[in-house]
Write a structure and sequence with these properties.
- By secondary structure, this protein is an alpha/beta fold.
- The chain folds into two domains: 292 residues, Alpha-Beta Barrel (TIM Barrel); 125 residues, no CATH class.
- 31% of the residues lie in helices and 17% in strands.
């Protein structure tokens, strides 16, 4: 029996489709063109609803320029951009799909204004979007929003416990529109990862028993026919053959986030596509630099190296002398003294002598040493914050209540919206954040991509269905 015959179609968002889902990567890494192509191939396409692009009358991407003088004014601009862009991507996907497959919109629940953007796009693109995928947080209101527009919802979780909490509190009330449960492997997926405080980021766990546990709970609450979508780590489906027709796993489909980046319809710049072909095993780094506070996986490029080195140049301080903290270090334009341990004072002097002369305070009573140029850039990015996250460590923004986290802005992180917009539209893969799944090194090893071959989405779907 050919492998393709073992892959059963699944009912996703109301129709039977190929068990292949395009992963909904953030800012402009999946759009209406790639989404529509996956749907047209009989699979599930997903466009990103995170800072989605809009187009002018000539079809050119319109840059998102902010004119508001305050963060709250810029946040309103960001929400307007998000709604306009999301509707534009839905229309493009709808036209390209030609009525085939399904079209999903992906959002991050922890993005700034997530609920308002979701309502705005679903209202503006009625009948064009069949499902919402949503992760990065605990989206309790996802089912409620889906019910208002009669679309399916697909929560992204990383453990049975997370889904159980969502089900008990919310989803059991809107069970008929629960299109699938997306299990995203927190060790292998690209972008933000759902590792809990009880899980060791350095010790990956086998997804099989975790998904089996999820299926057991789903069966207990009457969700036997609801598919699980395995996300993170899927490359060759032949490697997952023991999951097929397996009662412990049940109905199963697979989400691909990394492989769709290297297609002709993929909207990422050519420099990004070329970089993917050179990645080696171990080049993707699970880190905790993100301003969301979540772990995330990204290519270890110049951007990540600078963050790593910045965080290493970090020492504790006190504002008044204490038993172990009595070595004086003047900082800032006014030379106000802080107090260090003597051994840390030696380190501080070495940092300063090496050109890292600006000491920036963190919320954890530490100093981070950077160059004057980097300090100026960090401060400018913090001031220019447009509220792209519901809670941001880097800028101390919060999108509700008094619009602040109440903590110091954290110079150990970065403006995520700025860097993701830059890599998506400018293609600087060395000096901007390059999210990636840990399997990206397989581009260089997989004979399908030999001699720099870049498939169409249709060719990729056909290849995946062979098992390879």
């Amino acid at each position: 029996m050919a492998f393709i015959d073992k892959l059963k179609p699944v009912v996703i968002s109301g129709i039977e489709a190929l068990p292949i889902i395009e992963g909904g990567k953030g800012i402009s890494a999946t759009n209406g063109a790639s989404c529509g192509a996956f749907a047209n191939a009989g699979a599930i396409g997903t466009f990103s609803g995170v800072n989605a692009d809009s187009y002018d009358e000539q079809g050119n991407v319109m840059p998102q320029i902010y004119y508001g003088k305050t963060r709250r004014e810029r946040h309103e601009e960001l929400i307007a951009f998000g709604i306009t862009g999301g509707v534009a991507q839905a229309r493009q996907a709808h036209e390209i799909s030609d009525g085939n497959g399904r079209i999903h919109m992906n959002i991050l629940w922890e993005m700034g204004g997530a609920e308002r953007i979701l309502h705005g796009v679903l209202e503006g693109a009625k009948g064009m979007i069949h499902g919402i995928t949503c992760g990065a947080g605990m989206p309790y209101k996802l089912g409620e929003v889906a019910a208002k527009y009669d679309v399916y919802y697909h929560p992204i979780i990383s453990s049975m416990r997370a889904f159980r909490a969502l089900w008990i509190r919310s989803y059991s009330k809107v069970a008929h529109l629960l299109g699938s449960v997306v299990y995203e492997d927190p060790w292998l997926a690209g972008g933000h990862n759902g590792l809990s405080n009880n899980e060791n980021p350095q010790v990956p766990e086998d997804p099989y028993p975790r998904v089996m546990e999820l299926r057991k709970f789903m069966n207990e609450v009457g969700l036997q026919d609801t598919p699980i979508i395995m996300a993170g780590g899927a490359w060759h489906l032949a490697d997952w053959e023991h999951w097929l027709d397996n009662p412990d796993i049940g109905k199963i489909a697979f989400q691909f986030g990394t492989r769709p980046l290297l297609t002709q319809e993929s909207p990422i710049p050519d420099s990004w596509k070329q970089k993917l072909m050179t990645i080696k095993e171990g080049d993707v780094y699970l880190n905790r630099f993100s301003p969301t506070g979540f772990y995330s996986s990204a290519v270890r490029n110049g951007f990540i190296r600078e963050l790593t080195e910045r965080n290493h140049r970090q020492i504790e301080y006190r504002v008044a002398p204490e038993e172990d903290f009595y070595a004086v270090l003047p900082i800032g334009a006014r030379g106000r003294p802080v107090y260090l341990k003597p051994e840390d004072k030696i380190k501080a002097d070495e940092y300063i002598a090496s050109g890292f002369s600006e000491a920036l305070k963190t919320e954890d009573s530490t100093l981070v040493f950077v160059t004057p140029e980097k300090a100026k850039s960090i401060l400018a990015d913090q001031i220019d914050c447009m509220g792209c996250l519901s809670h941001c460590k880097f800028s101390n923004w919060k999108d509700k209540d008094n619009f602040t986290t109440g903590k110091k802005a954290d110079p150990r992180s970065y403006c995520i919206q700025k860097t993701l917009q830059a890599i998506a539209h400018e293609g600087n893969v060395e000096n901007q954040l390059m999210f990636s799944g840990h399997n990206a090194y397989k581009f260089a090893l997989d004979p399908f991509y030999a001699n720099g071959f870049v498939p169409t989405v249709k060719q990729l779907v056909e290849r995946i269905m062979t098992g390879y």
